[in-house]
Amino acid sequence: MNLTFDFKSINRHFPPKPISISTEEKAYWRNKIKVLLKKKNAVIIAHYYTDPDIQSLAEETGGCVADSLEMARFGSMHSAPNLLVAGVRFMGETAKILSPEKTVLMSTLNAECSLDLGCPINEFSRFCDMHADRTVVVYANTSVAVKGRADWIVTSSIAVKLIEYLDSIGKKIIWAPDRHLGNYIQKKTGADILSWQGACIVHEEFKIQALKRMKKLYPKAAVLAHPESPQGIIDLANIVGSTSQLIQAAKSLSHPQLIIATDQGIFYKMQKVVPDKKLLAAPTMGEGATCRSCAHCPWMAMNNLKDMANGLEHGGNAHEVHVDAALCKAALLPLNRMLSFTQSLTMR
Description:
Blueprint: H1 23-40, E1 42-47, H2 52-60, E2 64-66, H3 68-77, E3 82-86, H4 89-98, E4 103-106, H5 114-117, H6 121-130, E5 135-139, H7 144-149, E6 152-154, H8 159-168, E7 173-176, H9 179-189, E8 193-195, H10 208-217, E9 221-225, H11 231-236, E10 239-240, H12 243-252, E11 257-261, H13 267-273, E12 278-281, H14 305-314, H15 325-346
Parallel strand pairs: 1-2, 1-3, 3-4, 5-6, 5-7, 7-8, 9-10, 9-11, 11-12
Helix pairs in contact: 1-14, 3-4, 4-15
């Protein structure tokens, strides 16, 4: 890729670690949110990687805890006029694109994603223009502007199926932004894929040699990995899949121990479906190495109960998601293609 964009520049956006609160404070804010959800006729849409307190609150109040694809569908189909999205900014933007008539609120609008930050629209547009004969497929973890530049949008749960389809009709692909996921898809499908060179800071930190040693310590354990992980981690995995696919795999596997190579936020939901299995975090610190994310997205960690309550109660520019109308219109086309393609898969 003949571009000058510095992917390491995303480190400038790294947020500080969240401040812990007491059990009493958690109870106070949880109760306040429950009252506000009823008062405002709102529903919580939370990602698997958010704090367990947020996930359990979403479940208790009739909301949704899911991957980004199901979050998008749930928000567009739910009758509530107000959506409280617990995740990172692109998830709130996606909810707003699919439900422009609804008010979409977030704990903070500063919860970024390294994949989104690593794919700025100007550089990406030039990249696409250099390869204009290719169909542009972008991951959901991108800005509204990048989505609007794409022909298709996908999540990890349907990426392989979509690329298989596009390859079958002779399309050459630009894939963005995660190079590891692009590499995984290329190996699975054999498609002609030219990848943007972004990466997720969480999955990129998993250490191959440390995982090999961990497998020796736990010989009865299965390794479950998200395809945003480097190839060496994928090669060691028993199961590779999206967050929802990994949770389903945890149920079907007979192994008493599971080593999980994705964000530790998934442990809450996964442990609920396999209460008798031991969940182990894949190592992010090798010999002489330190981790920045340590298997938990620092921007996901910005979601907290207090700010969720304040967002619900007061709204405003610090919490309400707004999307430019022209960008929204452009991004809606590939988003709807994704949802239609997903629906066609369930009908087969």
